[in-house]
What does this fold into?
Amino acid sequence: MPILIAADAPSDREGLREALADAGYRKIVTATNGPEAVSAMAGEFFPLVIADSRLSGMNGFELCRTLRAGTRPGYVYVMMLTRGNRKSEILKVLEAGADTHLARPVDAADLAARLKAALRVIELERSLRLTNEEVRALSIRDSLTGIFNREYLTERLQQELKRSQRYGHPLSLIMCDIDHFKDVNDRYGHRAGDQILKDFVGRIAGSIRIDVDWIARYGGEEFLIVLPETDLASAYIVAERLRRLVCETPFRLRGREIGISSSFGVANYQPARQPGKVSFDVLMEQADRYLYQAKREGRNAVRGARPAGPETKGFAA
It folds into this structure.
């Protein structure tokens, strides 16, 4: 665990460093004043900070308030080095947001006890944070396929739209649907249908850009693929590639192979060509409309606004 010591006096810094080293701590960074401590915290996360209350440039109380006001990747446990055990100073330490005080001269046994208390708090906070992150991860995922769910789709697509508008980058959506999926459920059963859904998602998710594009389950057998910084012509190419990926290789189900096809609707937002803001609902309705056009016109197809360029010849608007 990295520890930051912020103290003006070299004797305080070295004395604390030696005591911490004797206690088994090896990663120790020192700062000679308040601003230097703030700078150190900006460059690295220190779960434990020991600060002199009388630091120059920014005293320990101001330093503690600054640490509490900032956003950190975890909890920062602050020990304030005081001149003794005067009640007034201890109260001032706690009011500033520090967790405990450490009286000078530092007693090794007292320091060891306070370090154990600090570790318990830090580990508890870390455990709770990890639990919350796990709960959050589960709450935004579809339980069957493991991809993002509709609630997260609504939240994140709003963010993607704002980013697209802010930087003037294109954004494309592909809404897709497994053709005749009800027939699959009726013929093979719902467990088999679930397996088809998972395999379908696996093919799609494995064929889009990692950490750039993403896919969410919109509902039933409908899915939405979000392609940031992708123009309409490129989105068409992606949709056609995915259509072929689904229909040209049979799906295996209970030892047999069955053919599955899918339909795709492509929507696009280009801030440079479309003045004003485009809402989440408008873009979703556009993708949905083109998807159902593809289904009405025979399925196993890609439909959307016609993009310019010879590379998209053969696509219908």
Summary: The radius of gyration is 29 Å. Confidence is low (pLDDT under 50) at residues 308-317. The longest strand covers residues 171-178.
